[in-house]
Amino acid sequence: MRFVETAAIVLIAGVCLHGNDRLVFVHAQRYTMGTMFDIAAYHRSGPQAERAIDRALAEVVRLDHVLSHYEPDSDLSRLLHTGRTGAVSVDPALYDLLGRSVEISRRSGGSFDVTIGALVRLWQAAQAEGRAPGPEAIAEAKRCVGYGRVQLTPPDSVRIDSSCLLIDFGGIGKGYAVERAIRMLQEAGIEHAVVNAGQSSIAAIGHQPERAGWLVDLGVRATEAGEIVLRDASISTSRQARIPLLGGEHGYGDIIDPARGRPVASSMTAIVRMASATNADALSTTLLLMPIEQGKRLLETFPGAGALWLSDTGRILASHGQVK
């Protein structure tokens, strides 16, 4: 999924007229969280917009370090190292995201669970060895999963009630970073901007000149979904990526069902539109882990949420609320 901005605007129309205002187009990007983050904005002051975008991208980089389960010195890694023997104080962003993750886990009946890290690593290791993990290994990894073992005490205290639980923010972290970047732009006085995290999570405020919002390409092959106009909202897309096993034709997907301990068998794409980029990111993944009707009931607990379920050819299978 990407926002649509022509090269002519980027390279030639550095200044656009909007009503009685002279708006400057500013764009920057940074590779972090394993993907490219793009931020574009229209603002009366180019230097002010550049500073705001730089600060927003710097915050995304900082969040990557806070939330990373790869970096041994990240805030998350330190929590998993020291938080098993007693409560520890953590970075406010880590505490906030853990709280929001646990809430979505509760509302989804555990279909969404950021404590799925042990299963993720098990399947990643098996893939690297060109095999699928056995049932005993899956059962052992499932023993280390359970959002109820994350104990949160305001304002920033966390305890992990498990010797092996691992946290993986892969299904929600990019949306959280997008949401935080948008908030920082707003705090800097930017009224028209879009933040795009690797074409899977996008949030927009205000609009492009001569449009009602920001034109977004959903990146699906069929024309049923196509492009939408996004304004003061976010949208997230999830699909099951097929990862081949070495030496064989068969593989598995990267979205794992916590209940079964196995990658979800789905060829659908789920698209969620709502105010919160954090929630949209988590819910687009969660919708692939449950039947469509159950997913609709979950979305009803999030006022204003809209969703599309697409087939592998891009045909709309079901919808809820408003997306386009």
In brief:
The chain has 324 residues and is an alpha+beta fold. It has nine helices and 19 strands.
The proportion of strand residues reads 25-35%
Mean pLDDT: 88
How far is the first residue's CA from the last residue's CA? Answer: 14 Å
Q: Numbering strands along the chain, what is their spatial order in the largest sheet?
A: 2-3-4-8-9-12-17-18-19
Structural class: alpha+beta
Overall 3D form: globular
Number of helices: 9
Radius of gyration: 20 Å
Q: How would you characterize the largest beta sheet? A: 9 strands, antiparallel
The tally of beta strands, per DSSP, is 19
Assign a percent range to the helix content. 25-40%
**Are there runs of 5+ residues with pLDDT below 50, and where?**
1-15, 245-250
User: Could you state the order of secondary-structure elements as H and E?
Assistant: EHEEEHHEHHHEEHEEEEEEEEEEHHEE
